[in-house]
Amino acid sequence: MLLKDLPRDALLRPLSRNEVIGMLVRLSIFGAATYYSIKWVVEAMDPTSKQKSQAKKRAEEQMRRIGLEGITLTEYEMNIASLLVDPQTIKVSWRDIAGLDEIINELQDTVILPFQKRHLLPNSKLFQPPKGVLLFGPPGCGKTMIAKATAKASGCKFINLQASTLTDMWYGESQKLTAAVFSLAIKIQPCIIFIDEIESFLRNRSSLDHEATAMMKAQFMSLWDGLDTSLTTQVMVMGATNRPQDVDPAILRRMPATFHVGLPNAKQREDILRLILAGENLSNAINLREIAEKTDGYSGSDLRELCRDAAMYRVRDFVRKEQIRQIAQQLQSYEEEEGFIFLAQLPDRTNQSRQGPSTRIGYGR
Q1: Which of 208, 217, 340, 349 gives the lowest tally of CB atoms within 10 Å of its CB?
Q2: Name one GO biological process term (predicted).
Q3: Domains within the chain, CATH numbers bracketed
């Protein structure tokens, strides 16, 4: 039947209660199916959706562990919060660092004291930690250990920022993540943002840089120390690098406190060796001062590897001696067993020799 053939009263009649409920149910089912279908398509198009969900779980766990459960965070701040490090879980302290007493004292006076004694001069614009601290020097000299010990001693929240976290395939997402770094740090201040190998992230800008990378660097510097930055904000950026010449000059300007962590001298190497070998079973013939003098040019990491190799050689020699001893015991037991079998067969051979040629088969004389 065509629509024009229906009577006018049938078209204008109100829907019954069951028809309205049925229509609402169908619309609800259609809406839910459409929502989940679109959500599935969007997640399928974004290869990082699984990583984001895992980062959210890690962030919630870290926030609960640090005691920041009541803070409301955005989606981008949750991604950055997954990089939070609880200072209480850091096992490195000043006692684990040897040969850098001068740098440690300067860090305690310049960085840690303003964080811990802020209440002494709450209205002062000068008594505050620096905006940035740069640790530079050859590899393996303890820059990362100093950063860990600083975070533990200051009691600040610690964000171990990685450049890969700020890169995203979608245009504009990197800028939102960069903004989330500082918005999160302000919410949980006092906070230290640590960037290891900072030259790979904030290196010298040039006209050859990608547009997204250049915008991300510019926004990072603007949020770090720009027009809207408050002087009372207790957020500090700490970077470590072994190539300070590759860091952008604008970044170096924002890091007024710079510390050169160089190769240790003979006295520092002796202190490092004494710290590394503490608790080890050493021979009385070992002279740490002599070893320190013979290891000129070694970093702290090199000295640790040297001691590790020495320990491995000791275990290796012991294992080889044990293997040789076991092989000797096996050979001895084998020879004893063969000798016993030979002695057991001697009577049979004697009987065979007594029987003479009559027992032999063949032609005889």
Answers
A1: 208
A2: extraction of mislocalized protein from mitochondrial outer membrane
A3: 49-262 (3.40.50.300), 265-348 (1.10.8.60)
